[in-house]
Amino acid sequence: MAAAPVPDPVYVLRGANSAINTLCFQCSNPDPGFPILYSGSSNGLIHIWNLKTHRVCDSLNGHGGNSVYYVQTLSNRKNGLLTQGRDQNICLWDLSEGRNIVTESLLTENVGFCRCSLSEVTEKRSLLATAWKELEEICVLEMPSKTSVCTLKPEPDAKLGMPMSLKMWQPNTGSHPHLLAGYEDGSVVLWNVSMGRMLSRLICHKEPVMSLDFDAEKTKGVSGSSENKLCVWSHTRPEKLELQQTYQLTNPGISEVRLRQDKKILATAGWDHRIRLFGWKKLKPLAVLDYHTSTVHCVAFSDHNQPGERLMAAGSKDHRISVWSLYNQT
């Protein structure tokens, strides 16, 4: 049987007028069949896209014209949004009832471009991990109070370099949070947040870890770098990360890796302008989506628990956002 043809985007969003660095869906809006999409751009704007009209319905400007490289909706705050920019600030927004107010801001004094990671512990309490003032530091804070929980810093002889990517996760309900961090030297490190202690270090890349994601149910994760390979690693033994699988890519450079919420599909954003899709169970290649004309910086999935079509969006240096309908029955 012949392979199914590679689809085209269902539509393309234009009008950001700048490179798209980050994307995030919000599916719990009044019309769940048409989720809202947030994008962060190099010109400092956060655009709110109406996916029914395929147009920008509002723009936010809270980072002084500096590039925005992380946007995340807050499930424990209705109409809440978190953004991070090159102005070294992380901002919490209130978008309820037509407002666009920054309610909290946090100055990290970090000059890198490591995206922060948020874990919503309760309805009123979250833990935020972010690269911090010193070169190798990661600070974990309780939000919205901004109270410091711990500062994670490797031993001086570890020589990990700057943190490049972060992922907070809970091993199970009621347990202490853990943090996975990808570093400049190619290492992925597992930290126990409550103890402020490094549990395991796995050197799986020769270049900085540009992005990682983690499947807490299967206790395995994936990371990408400027190399032409993906690394899949597991946390099957207590306090130990182990390399499980590598996949050689045709071209080098991964900006972002992202698992779909049902943990069946993995998407990668490539420096070669392409989006690659894999079956997560065995890292089986499914499709190569070749639409963009420049580096793809980010990918995001809509929430599979909501009614309507499951969507994937990809943002590129070419100023465009492609929106795809893929493997909805997988």
Can you give a write-up of this model?
The chain is mainly beta. 0% of the residues lie in helices and 52% in strands. The protein has no helices and 28 strands. The strands form seven sheets. It has a four-stranded antiparallel sheet, with no helix packed on it. A hairpin with a 4-residue loop joins β18 (209-215) and β19 (220-225). The protein is globular, with a radius of gyration of 19 Å. The model has no long low-confidence stretch (mean pLDDT 91).
Keywords:
globular; four-stranded antiparallel sheet; mainly beta; 330 residues
Q: How do you describe this structure in short?
A:
The protein is mostly beta strands. It is built from no helices and 28 strands. It starts with 10 loop residues before the first strand and ends in a 6-residue tail after the last strand.
* Largest sheet: spatial strand order: 1-28-27-26
The biggest sheet amounts to:
4 strands, antiparallel
Can you give the mean pLDDT? 91
Helicity, as a percent range: under 10%
The CA-CA distance between the termini, in Å, is 19 Å
Number of helical stretches of at least 4 residues: 0
What would you call the shape? globular
Instruction: Give the structural class.
Output: mainly beta
> What share of residues are in beta strands?
over 45%
* CA-atom Rg in angstroms: 19 Å
